[in-house]
Specification:
The chain is of the alpha/beta class and about 350 residues long. It has two domains: about 5-125 and about 305-320, Nucleotidyltransferase, domain 5; about 135-305, ATPase, nucleotide binding domain (Nucleotidyltransferase, domain 5). The chain is built from nine helices and ten strands. The protein is globular. Bound molecules: 5'-O-[(R)-(carboxyoxy)(hydroxy)phosphoryl]adenosine and zinc ion (ZN). Zinc ion binds near residues 111, 141, 275 and 308.
C-alpha cells in the first residue's frame, strides 16, 4: 500500500497544501496573499487572517487534484517553523485537528529542511536527478542565506551564513528603493533581463570564511540612488532595467564567490540551490555556467519548488514518516528554528 502524506505550509504569506504518495507528488496547491502588496512587506496579522480563510479551500483543492479522500491520508505533515508565529499557528492547528479527527500520525517539519529536501520530490513521468550525499546546498530565501553541507536527509551542517540580511531581503529592499512592489525579487529578475549587469558597480562586502553580508550593499544602493535622483529626478525611471541588472549581478557574484570557496574547501562537487531566490534566472544561469567551468554536478529545483510550497513539506514529512518520527498533539510552532537540529 502506498504511503500518502498531506503536507501543510503556512510559515509566511503562502497557504499551501500538497499530497505526496510514496515520494511522488500528486498535487501542490498554493494561495498567495495579495493583501500585503500595498504595505511593502508582509503584515503578520493580515497574513494569519488570510491563512485562516485559505487553509480549508486549499487542502480541499489539493485532495481533489490528487483524487484522494481524507480516509486515504496516512499522515499529516506541517511546518513547525521558522516563520511568523501567527501564520505557523494556523497550519499547525489545522494539522493537529486533522490528525486527531482521522486518528493518523502528525509529523512536524522544519521549513528550512523542507527547502533542501524539495530536491527529492518525484514526479510521474519525469526523471529528475537528485543530489547525492554529501552535497553542498546554497539556501537562499527571504529570511535565510546559508551554505549547508548535507550529509543525509536530516543531517545538515551550516558551513556559512549571513551575518545580517538574507539575499532575498536584499532583492526586496533594493526593489523597494526604486519603487517596485513587494516582493521585489521576481520583478528585479524580470527587469534585469532588459538591462546591462555592468551599468553600475556596487562594492562587494569583505567577509571572512564562508559567511555573507548584504546589509552594506542594500545601504550603498539606497545612497547611490538617492544621490543620483538629486542630480536627475528621472534617474530611476530612466535606468530601472540597468539598476535591476546591476544589483542582481552583484548579489549573484557574492553568492557564487562563497559557493566556489565552499566547494574548494570541502572538495564536494555536488552543488544544489534551494529557496525562493533560487527561482532567479540569473542565479540559475550562473550555476549552470559554473557546472561546466568547475566540473560541478548542479541541482536546481523546478521553479514551483523554489518559493514556499507544501510539496517540500510533504516530502520531508514522508522521510520522517519512514523513520517513525512523529509529533505529539502537545507540539507547538516555533518562530525561530535552526536547520541543524
Ligand atoms: O523561500 P521563500 O518563498 O520564502 C522564505 O522562506 O523566505 O523566499 C522568498 C524570497 C523573497 O525575498 C523573494 O523576493 C525572493 O525569494 N524571490 C526572488 C525570485 N523569486 C522569489 N528573488 C530573486 N529572483 C526571483 N526570481
Ligand atoms: Zn521559505
Amino acid at each position: 500500500m502506498a504511503i500518502n502524506i498531506l503536507g501543510i505550509e503556512s510559515s509566511c504569506d503562502d497557504t499551501s497544501a500538497a499530497i505526496i504518495s510514496d515520494g511522488v507528488l500528486l498535487s501542490n496547491v498554493t494561495a498567495n496573499q495579495s493583501v500585503h502588496k500595498a504595505y511593502g512587506g508582509v503584515v503578520p496579522e493580515l497574513a494569519s487572517r488570510a491563512h485562516q480563510q485559505n487553509i480549508v479551500p486549499v487542502v480541499h483543492e489539493a485532495m481533489r487534484r490528487a483524487k484522494m479522500t481524507k480516509q486515504n491520508v496516512d499522515a499529516v505533515a506541517f511546518t513547525k517553523g521558522p516563520g511568523l508565529l501567527g501564520s505557523l499557528l494556523v497550519g499547525a492547528s489545522f494539522a493537529k485537528g486533522f490528525s486527531l479527527a482521522l486518528d493518523i500520525p502528525l509529523v512536524e517539519v522544519n521549513h528550512l529542511q523542507g527547502h533542501v529536501l524539495a530536491h527529492f520530490i518525484k514526479e510521474k513521468g519525469k526523471n529528475i536527478q537528485r543530489p547525492k550525499f554529501p552535497f553542498l546546498c546554497l539556501l537562499v530565501s527571504g529570511g535565510h542565506t546559508q551554505i549547508l553541507l548535507i550529509k543525509d536527509y536530516f543531517d545538515m551542517e551550516i558551513i556559512g551564513q549571513t551575518i545580517d540580511d538574507a539575499a532575498g531581503e536584499a532583492f526586496d529592499k533594493c526593489a523597494k528603493t526604486i519603487g517596485l512592489p513587494y516582493p521585489g525579487g521576481p520583478l528585479v529578475d524580470k527587469l534585469a533581463k532588459l538591462g546591462n549587469p555592468r551599468a553600475f558597480k556596487f562594492s562587494k562586502p569583505r567577509i571572512a570564511n564562508l559567511d555573507f553580508s548584504f546589509s552594506g550593499l542594500k545601504t550603498s544602493f539606497l545612497y547611490f540612488v538617492r544621490d543620483e535622483v538629486i542630480k536627475n529626478k528621472n534617474f530611476v525611471s530612466e535606468n530601472k532595467n540597468n539598476l535591476c541588472a546591476s544589483i542582481q549581478n552583484t548579489i549573484i557574484e557574492i553568492l557564487l564567490d562563497k559557493l566556489k570557496k565552499a566547494s574548494k574547501q570541502t572538495g564536494v562537487n555536488e552543488i544544489a540551490v534551494a529557496g525562493g531566490v533560487s527561482a532567479n534566472s540569473g542565479l540559475r544561469n550562473e550555476i549552470a555556467a559554473n557546472a561546466t567551468k568547475y566540473g560541478w554536478n548542479t541541482y536546481v529545483p523546478e521553479i514551483e519548488y523554489t518559493t514556499d510550497n507544501a510539496a517540500m513539506i510533504a516530502i520531508t514529512g514522508y522521510y520522517k514518516y519512514l523513520k517513525n518520527d512523529f509529533a505529539l498533539q502537545s507540539t507547538a510552532p516555533s518562530a525561530r528554528m535552526r536547520i541543524d537540529v
